Amino acid sequence: MKPNIAFVTGGYSAEAEISYKSALTIEKNIDTDKFCVYKIDITPQGWFYDAGNGKKLTVDRNDFSLTIDGKKLTFDAVLIGIHGTPGEDGRLQGYFDLTGLPYTSCDSATSALTFNKRYTVAVAAFAGIDVAKSVHIFKHSPVTPEQVLTQLSLPVFVKPNNGGSSIGMSKVNEAKDLAGALEKAFKEDDQVLVEEFIAGREFTIGVFKSTKGIITLPITEVKSKKDFFDYEAKYQGLSEEITPAQVDEAIAEKVRSTAKRVYELFNCRGVIRIDFIYNESKQAPYMLEINTVPGQSEASIVPQQVRAMGLTLKDFYSALIEDALERRSK
Predict the structure, then answer these.
(1) Which GO terms describe its molecular function (predicted)?
(2) CATH code where residue 258 lies
(3) Which of 26, 53, 103, 238 reaches 20 to 30 Å from 225, CA-CA?
């Protein structure tokens, strides 16, 4: 019998919109000859399976099961396609750990840690990985723009500390603009990260674990048509993404080896995407952040890298699911 796979999409944050875009790509490329796939929509209103003909079935959250035509259906593994909370911040992973279901993403501890940008770079820096100098600000303990600029030099990036897709992010070149950028970021989160700008080329690389071990995908160089790689650049065509990147092998190897080191350091699972700035003067890649549920839409980078490696998305998603299923068998 084919394993039953729950493909979860949706979410509770503004990134649900991106989750649904990813879902279109994933659904088209899951190998239904190998797996019986059930798409589960996780929303603030409830967890549902679309059974067709406008009929939605509610998921039994006691054991993450469905009842279809009077018969109980359970799952063998979960393919997580939710960006933002609760699929990328460890909450859903903790729930699946309690129910004993394996899943395709990082575990709850790693997901929670890497969802917090400041804690991620702090751990990376402690392990000797180059990161930007930064300041972590909490809404309950306000810090003035002047206080921030006593610790950091302009230009800086201001971003919500928890979240993705560059929502609420700004680049600040002048001191007078910092207050507005902080206000914008605090609308998305009660924690904000302010980071010094690092000059250099922006690279991003997918890394995943299959039954064959840790594999790095081809590197992508990102060239934004805007001042930085923001939401519009990512999702509205205002960037140039060169896959594979046209880069000297010595630089590429530094990025690949650092990416593998990060994957191991944070005990990652499934596919992640790591963003770097390669600083020429330091001749080193600076890690920006880790995306533990990277986008899978037609505009997303990981699908580009998978194709550039000569893999099909069908084979790629099968490798992720099979890795999760192997954990269930242990």
Answers:
(1) ATP binding; D-alanine-D-alanine ligase activity; metal ion binding
(2) 3.30.470.20
(3) 26
Catalytic residue list contains 281: no
Q: Do residue 27 and residue 93 come from a single domain?
A: yes
Has 300 been annotated as catalytic?
Answer: yes
Distances (CA, A) of 94 to 43, 80, 89, 101, 112: 17, 13, 10, 10, 10
Has 195 been labeled as part of a binding site?
Answer: no
Check if 15 is active-site. Answer: yes
173-221 pLDDT tens trace: 999 999 999 999 998 889 899 999 999 999 999 999 877 789 999 999 9
Active-site residue, from 108, 165, 166, 170: 165
- Residue 82, amino acid: I
Q: How far apart are the first and last CA of the chain?
A: 19
Distance CA 41, CA 121 (A): 32
Q: Which of 13, 15, 134, 318 is catalytic?
A: 15
Picking from 196, 220, 245, the residue at the C-terminal end of a domain is: 196
pTM: 0.88
